[in-house]
Specification:
By secondary structure, the protein is of the alpha+beta class. It is built from five helices and seven strands; from the N terminus they run ααβββαβααβββ.
């Protein structure tokens, strides 16, 4: 008589279990594919933002190359300021108001225009960009904020630290939000030499 091994005495997997295992294997395969696609997308986005920042700096350099000789001819031609030539007019907000909105979002109103509702992080970032912290400025607008300043101040407001790359991305998102709301995205200014940002708003114009 043939001896039955312990392995043969084990119950055969039920069809439902086989189907479940097959489904799990397919899900794992899909998960791996989605993870690879996500990683590639994030890498591509980072490259895009890096390139966008480089182009922004290059544009600023070109504008400066045009502004400097133009300002010596007529200061009103650009936003360049020279102590010997006087101060040119710079487009900026005269008034800005922030209000709390549902789900911790922030509503902002520039020069008594239509209200723009922003996600929490973008709203807090815009508040910081609009603040007059007494930083360096060559005009009557609020001072510039370096990336390190923005990172520290935003961490206080949001409770978490943001990378320099994330800050650049959020400034880009703010500009997109401004453009979508028919606001002048150029009000969000960049200083390539200082690697700093600000909202073009007159000093002491911010209200809560």
């Amino acid at each position: 008589m043939r001896t039955v091994s312990s392995f043969e005495r084990l119950p055969k997997p039920a069809p439902a279990r086989d189907a479940l295992l097959a489904r799990m294997r397919r899900s794992c395969a899909r998960l791996g594919k989605v993870q690879r696609l996500y990683t590639a997308l994030v890498s591509e986005m980072h490259s895009f933002y890096d390139r966008a920042e480089q182009l922004e700096e290059e544009l600023a350099r070109i504008i400066n190359e045009i502004n400097e000789p133009a300002a010596r001819l007529d200061p009103a031609l650009c936003g360049f300021r020279d102590p010997e030539l006087g101060r040119a007019t710079v487009k900026a907000c005269v008034s800005i108001q922030f209000d709390r909105h549902a789900r911790r979002r922030v509503a902002v109103r520039l020069d008594h225009g239509e209200s723009l509702v922003l996600p929490p992080v973008l709203g807090e970032l815009l508040k910081i960009l609009a603040k007059d912290l007494g930083g360096h400025a060559e005009d009557d607008l609020v001072g510039w904020k370096s990336l390190d300043q923005l990172r520290d101040l935003l961490a206080v407001e949001t409770g978490r630290l943001h990378s320099r790359r994330a800050l650049v991305e959020n400034v880009y998102r703010l500009r997109k939000a401004f453009a979508a709301a028919d606001l002048d995205a150029a009000l969000l200014q960049t200083n390539p030499r200082m690697r700093a940002y600000r909202l073009a708003v007159r000093r002491f114009a911010v209200s809560r």
